[in-house]
UniProtKB/TrEMBL annotation:
<feature type="region of interest" description="Disordered">
    <location>
        <begin position="613"/>
        <end position="637"/>
    </location>
</feature>
<keyword id="KW-0732">Signal</keyword>
<feature type="signal peptide">
    <location>
        <begin position="1"/>
        <end position="30"/>
    </location>
</feature>
<comment type="similarity">
    <text>Belongs to the TonB-dependent receptor family.</text>
</comment>
<feature type="domain" description="TonB-dependent receptor plug">
    <location>
        <begin position="51"/>
        <end position="168"/>
    </location>
</feature>
<dbReference type="InterPro" id="IPR012910">
    <property type="entry name" value="Plug_dom"/>
</dbReference>
<dbReference type="Pfam" id="PF00593">
    <property type="entry name" value="TonB_dep_Rec_b-barrel"/>
</dbReference>
<dbReference type="Pfam" id="PF07715">
    <property type="entry name" value="Plug"/>
</dbReference>
<keyword id="KW-0798">TonB box</keyword>
<dbReference type="InterPro" id="IPR036942">
    <property type="entry name" value="Beta-barrel_TonB_sf"/>
</dbReference>
<keyword id="KW-0812">Transmembrane</keyword>
<keyword id="KW-0813">Transport</keyword>
<dbReference type="InterPro" id="IPR000531">
    <property type="entry name" value="Beta-barrel_TonB"/>
</dbReference>
<keyword id="KW-0675">Receptor</keyword>
<dbReference type="GO" id="GO:0009279">
    <property type="term" value="C:cell outer membrane"/>
</dbReference>
<keyword id="KW-0472">Membrane</keyword>
<feature type="compositionally biased region" description="Low complexity">
    <location>
        <begin position="620"/>
        <end position="631"/>
    </location>
</feature>
Length: 929
C-alpha cells in the first residue's frame, strides 16, 4: 500500500495528464510481474513500472501543449523556467542562425542542450549560432503530433550522450493514431498585423493488436506575416532606436548618421566627406528626404537615422512539416518500424542598408595577410567626384540607402529517416535502428555591395563606374552601376548525421530485498559532417560582410551500461557509465542516482553525473572563423564608465564592437560535473510538491575571449581619430572597430539553483475538476571563471553577452498555470513572470546603459521584471468537433525598456510578446473517423 500511494503521487507530479496515456499500473500491480506494464522514461533505458526516477524530469503532456495557445514547440518551451540565455526565439532574425529556434537549458547554451526526437538525435541546424554553437532546430518538429515532451534536468546523460551537459529535451511523437483529423487556426495581434495561419491533417490506420500494423501520417503548414519595428512606433519605446525622449544620448547601438566630434562620425544616409585639412566631416545635403528621423537635434550637422526605419521585429515565415511512421508487428515478440520526416522552412528578415565603408574580416591570405580590410580608410571620394566639396581625395562615410535595406532569406530543409526493429528475445527487451538526418540551408543576403566596384566608383575617375552619386543625388546613377555594384550574396550549408544504435534491457535473476536488479546495455556509432561555407565574396573581403564558416567531420563510437538496484523496498539505486571514443578524444562518464521512500507520502532523491563535450566544427578547426558583434564599454575611451578627455563621448561607453573568432585545433574538450538533491512530497490529497537543488560545473570551457577583455588588447583595430589630451595625441586610442577574440579553454562555469514544482488537483463535483500548478526556478549563482584572477558573476545581471544572445540571467522565473474542465468546456490560464535584472554586464560592473547626463540609463540601473498572462478555452461541440480560442498577453503588457540587448530594438528578445502586443487566435478541429 505504501509503494502504491507513492508511485501514484510521483506519477502525478511528473506526468500530469500523461498518466492516462502511459496507462501505468500501480506498484501493487508492479509486484505482480506477470501483468506489469513497463515504460521507458527519458534518462534511463531500463523499463520500469512507475514514471519516477532519481533524476528530476519535467513532462509536458499533449493537452498542456495544445492548450497553451502557442504556435510552435519552441515558442512553448521558451516560456519554461528551465530555459535561459542562449535560446533562440523566432524574432532573432539578425543572428547568425536566423530562421531557426532553439532552447538553452540552465542558460548554458543550445550547444549543451541535447534535443531528441523519439529518443534519437537529429542533425543540427546547418549554421551554428554565433558561428560557434551547434544546436538542434526546434522548428522542424510538427507540434500537432507531439505526444509529450520530457525534459531531463540533471545534466549529462550516460544513455543519450555525455555532451548533454545542461540536460536533455526528448520530444515524443504520437504513434497510436487511428482515424482522420483536421485542425486549423488563425491569429492576429491587437494591431491587426502579425497574422498567422496554420493547418494540419493527421491520419492513422491499423491496430497493432488486431491488425498487426499501424501507420500514421501528419502534415502541418504554417504561414506568418512579418512585423516591422516601425509598426510599433506608437508602443512607447518598443522597436524604437531613438531613446532621446527617455533621456538617452543620441548615439545608441541602433543609431547612425551623427557627427560625434572631430574625425569621429557614424555613416549617414546622405553621405559625409572629411576635410583633409581639419579632419572634420561635412554632411552632404538632402537629409529630410532620406531619413525618417525628423528630430535632428544633436546630430551636429549630420543626418541622424535609426535602424527601425527599415529593420523587422518578426520575420515572415512559411513552413511545412511532414511526418510519417509505420509499425509492423511481425510476431508477438518482434516489431519493425520506419519513420520519415521532412521539414521546409523559409524566413525573410529585413535589416538595414549596407555601409560603403565597413571593416570586414576574413582568413588571412597573401594579398591581405592581416585578415581584414578597413574600407573606411580605403574608399576615398576622389577629388574629381562632383559631390566632393574639397580639392583633394577625402575619406567618406555613407550608408547606401539608395539601394535599400538588405533582406536575409533563409531556406532550410530538414530530412530524417529511421528504420529499426524492437522486441523481446531470450529475456531481453531490445531496440536497434539506423538513423540518418540532414539539414540544408540556403542563405541569401540581398542588396549587398561588390566592394571592388564601390571602390572604383568612388575613387577612380578612369573607371567606367565613376562617379557613384550618393545620398540625394543617387537618382543620377545609371542602372548599369547598380547592376555591377549590388549583389545578392549566397551560401549553401549542410550538416548530416548518421547513427547506428542498439540497446537492450532485462531484469536479472538477482534478487535484492526490494526486487530484482534491472540491467541495460547499449552502443552507438555516429558520424557528423558540417559544411558551412561563408557567403560568396566574404572569403576575401570583396563584399560588405565578414567571413563566417565552419567545417568538420567527426566519428563517435560509444558504449554504455546501466543498472537499477532496488536495495530495499524503500531504497532504489541507479548507476550508469558511458564510454565515448572520438577521432581525437575519448571519455568515460558515470552517473549515479538514489531514491529513498521512507514513508508513503515522501521521497528523497539525488543524482551525480559527469559530462564531456569535444570541440565542435566551428571551434576545433582552423578553417572555421566567424565575426560576432556585442556592445561593450571601450576601456580606452571610456575608463571608469566616464568618457575620456580629448574627444571621447558617451557613445564610447556602449559601443558595438566586432570580434573575430577563429577555430583552434589545439582546443581540449569541455568536461562537467552535475549534482541534484531533492524531494517529492504529497502533503495532502491531490497535492504534489517537488523541490530540487542543482549544481553544474563545466570545466575547461570553450569560450571566445570576453569582448570587454578583447577591446583592451593593443591589437584591437581602431580608427585614427585618436584622443588628444594636453595637446598630445594618444596613440591607438581611436574609435574601436574590430578586435580578436580567439576561442580558448577558459577555466570553468559553475551554476547552481533550485526548482520548485507544485501541483494541486481539485474535484469540484458538479463544477467539474481543476488543476493548479506552479513552477519556480531560482538561479543562485551563474559564475564564469576566465582565469585565476578574473571571475564573472552573471546571476541577476544582463550578461552573459559574449557567448549568448545577451538576453540576461534573471535570478527567478515563475510559471503559474490553472486549468478547469466543466462539461464540454475547458478553460486554461498561464502566467509567466521573470525577475528584474541589473543592467550590468556582470556583477560589480558599471551600469551598461547611461543617459546623456551620465546617470543610469534605466531606473536603478535595472531591467524591470516582466509578467504576461495567457488565456485559452476549448469547447467540444461533440466528440468529433472542437472549437478553441486563445489570447496571449491578455493585459497587453509592454516589454520593459532594454537598451543593451541587440536581439530586439529597445526590448529584450525573450520578452517578444510584450513587443508584439495582445495576440488573438481562434481555430477548430474535426475528427472525421
Amino acid at each position: 500500500m505504501v509503494e502504491k500511494m507513492m508511485a501514484r503521487s510521483v506519477r502525478l507530479l511528473f506526468t500530469g495528464g500523461l498518466m492516462a496515456t502511459l496507462g501505468m499500473a500501480g506498484t501493487a500491480a508492479a509486484q505482480d510481474n506477470t501483468n506489469m506494464q513497463r515504460v521507458e522514461i527519458t534518462g534511463s533505458s531500463i523499463k520500469r513500472a512507475t514514471a519516477e526516477t532519481a533524476s528530476p524530469v519535467q513532462v509536458i503532456g499533449r493537452e498542456e501543449l495544445l492548450r497553451s495557445g502557442k504556435s510552435t514547440v519552441s515558442e512553448y518551451l521558451q516560456t519554461l523556467t528551465v530555459d535561459g540565455a542562449g535560446s533562440l526565439p523566432t524574432g532573432f532574425g539578425n543572428g547568425f542562425a536566423a530562421g531557426s529556434t532553439a532552447i538553452s537549458l540552465r542558460g548554458l547554451g543550445a550547444t549543451s542542450t541535447l534535443v531528441l526526437l523519439n529518443g534519437r538525435r537529429m542533425a543540427p541546424f546547418a549554421r551554428a549560432d554565433d558561428g560557434q554553437k551547434s544546436f538542434t532546430d526546434l522548428s522542424t518538429v510538427p507540434m500537432q503530433i507531439v505526444e509529450r515532451i520530457e525534459i531531463l534536468k540533471d545534466g549529462a546523460s550516460s544513455t543519450y550522450g555525455a555532451d548533454a551537459i545542461a540536460g536533455v529535451v526528448n520530444i515524443i511523437l504520437r504513434k497510436d493514431v487511428q482515424g482522420l483529423e483536421f485542425k486549423a487556426d488563425t491569429g492576429w495581434s491587437r494591431y491587426d498585423d502579425g497574422k498567422q495561419n496554420k493547418a494540419s491533417v493527421t491520419f492513422g490506420k491499423g491496430d497493432l493488436d488486431e491488425d498487426k500494423y499501424n501507420w500514421v501520417v501528419n502534415a502541418e503548414y504554417m504561414q506568418s506575416d512579418r512585423i516591422k519595428n516601425s509598426d510599433r512606433k506608437d508602443r512607447a519605446y518598443i522597436g524604437s532606436g531613438d531613446l532621446r525622449p527617455y533621456g538617452f544620448p543620441i548615439g545608441t547601438q541602433f543609431a547612425g548618421g551623427y557627427i560625434n566630434g572631430t574625425n569621429s562620425v557614424s555613416p549617414s544616409p546622405t553621405g559625409m566627406v572629411r576635410d583633409p585639412v581639419t579632419t572634420n566631416y561635412v554632411n552632404l545635403p538632402g537629409c529630410a528626404g532620406i531619413s525618417a528621423t525628423t528630430n535632428q537635434a544633436g546630430a551636429n550637422g549630420g543626418c541622424l537615422y535609426y535602424q527601425d526605419q527599415w529593420r523587422d521585429m518578426q520575420p515572415e515565415i512559411e513552413s511545412l512539416n511532414l511526418y510519417t511512421k509505420g509499425t509492423l508487428q511481425i510476431n508477438e515478440a518482434t516489431q519493425a518500424y520506419v519513420e520519415l520526416g521532412y521539414s521546409k522552412r523559409s524566413t525573410a528578415f529585413t535589416m538595414t542598408p549596407p555601409s560603403v565603408t565597413p571593416t570586414v574580416a576574413f582568413p588571412p591570405n597573401a594579398q591581405t595577410p592581416q585578415g581584414f580590410i578597413n574600407y573606411g580608410n580605403l574608399n576615398l571620394m576622389s577629388a574629381a567626384h562632383p559631390q566632393n566639396p574639397f580639392g583633394a581625395n577625402a575619406r567618406m562615410r555613407y550608408i547606401a540607402a539608395d539601394i535599400g535595406p538588405s533582406e536575409r532569406n533563409a531556406d532550410n530543409e530538414f530530412r530524417r529517416f529511421v528504420v529499426g526493429v524492437k522486441g523481446s528475445l531470450a529475456g531481453w527487451d531490445y531496440d536497434t535502428g539506423f538513423t540518418y538526418s540532414d539539414s540544408q540551408l540556403d542563405l541569401e543576403y540581398t542588396n549587398m555591395l561588390n566592394m571592388n566596384v564601390v571602390t572604383q566608383a568612388l575613387s577612380n575617375p578612369a573607371s567606367q563606374y565613376f562617379p557613384y552619386y550618393i545620398g540625394d543625388q543617387a537618382h543620377r546613377n545609371p542602372a548599369s552601376l547598380y547592376q555591377a555594384m549590388v549583389v545578392n550574396a549566397m551560401s549553401h550549408s549542410k550538416t548530416s548525421l548518421s547513427v547506428i544504435d542498439f540497446k537492450a534491457s532485462r531484469e536479472l535473476p538477482i534478487a535484492l530485498p526490494g526486487g530484482n536488479i534491472g540491467l541495460a546495455i547499449g552502443a552507438e556509432h555516429r558520424r557528423e559532417k558540417v559544411t558551412n561555407p561563408s557567403l560568396a565574396g566574404s572569403e576575401n573581403g570583396s563584399i560588405n560582410s565578414s567571413y563566417v564558416a565552419a567545417f568538420g567531420d567527426a566519428k563517435v563510437s560509444a558504449v554504455y551500461a546501466e543498472i537499477l538496484a532496488p536495495i530495499l523496498k524503500s531504497l532504489e539505486l541507479s548507476a550508469a557509465v558511458r564510454y565515448d571514443k572520438y577521432d581525437n578524444f575519448n571519455s568515460t562518464t558515470p552517473k549515479v542516482g538514489l531514491k529513498w521512500t521512507p514513508i508513503r507520502t515522501f521521497a528523497l532523491r539525488g543524482t551525480y553525473t559527469e559530462g564531456f563535450r569535444a570541440p565542435g566544427a566551428a571551434e576545433g578547426s582552423s578553417s572555421s572563423q566567424s565575426t560576432g558583434t556585442s556592445t561593450v564599454r571601450d576601456p580606452i575611451r571610456c575608463p571608469n564608465n566616464t568618457p575620456a578627455a580629448g574627444g571621447a563621448t558617451q557613445t564610447d561607453c556602449g559601443i558595438p564592437v566586432a570580434a573575430v573568432k577563429v577555430g583552434d585545433a589545439n582546443l581540449q574538450p569541455e568536461t562537467s560535473k552535475g549534482v541534484t538533491l531533492g524531494m517529492v512530497w504529497d502533503p495532502f490529497e491531490g497535492t504534489s510538491v517537488a523541490l530540487d537543488g542543482w549544481k553544474i560545473k563545466r570545466e575547461n570551457e570553450i569560450n571566445p575571449l570576453p569582448y570587454n577583455e578583447a577591446a583592451a588588447l593593443p591589437t584591437a583595430i581602431r580608427n585614427d581619430n585618436n584622443l588628444v589630451q594636453n595637446g598630445q595625441v594618444i596613440p591607438n586610442s581611436g574609435t574601436l572597430i574590430l578586435t580578436q577574440a580567439p576561442y580558448r579553454n577558459s577555466s570553468f562555469t559553475e551554476i547552481s539553483g533550485v526548482d520548485l514544482d507544485i501541483k494541486q488537483r481539485l474535484r469540484l463535483g458538479d463544477y467539474g475538476r481543476a488543476t493548479l500548478g506552479m513552477v519556480i526556478t531560482h538561479v543562485a549563482s551563474w559564475k564564469r571563471q576566465e582565469s585565476a584572477t578574473t571571475v564573472y558573476q552573471f546571476a541577476g545581471t544582463h550578461g552573459n553577452c559574449d557567448t549568448s544572445n545577451c538576453a540576461g540571467t534573471p535570478k527567478n522565473k515563475v510559471n503559474l498555470s490553472a486549468t478547469w474542465d466543466i462539461n464540454a468546456f475547458n478553460f486554461n490560464a498561464n502566467l509567466n513572470w521573470r525577475d528584474k535584472m541589473k543592467n550590468i554586464y556582470f556583477e560589480g560592473g558599471p551600469c551598461a546603459s547611461t543617459l546623456a547626463n551620465g546617470q543610469p540609463g534605466t531606473k536603478d540601473c535595472e531591467i524591470a521584471s516582466f509578467t504576461t498572462l495567457d488565456l485559452s478555452t476549448r469547447y467540444n461541440v461533440n466528440k468529433n468537433f472542437t472549437l478553441f480560442a486563445s489570447v496571449n498577453n491578455v493585459f497587453d503588457r509592454v516589454a520593459p525598456l532594454d537598451p543593451l540587448t541587440y536581439g530586439g530594438i529597445s526590448y529584450n528578445p525573450m520578452d517578444a510578446s510584450g513587443a508584439i502586443g495582445r495576440y488573438f487566435k481562434i481555430g477548430a478541429s474535426y475528427k472525421f473517423f
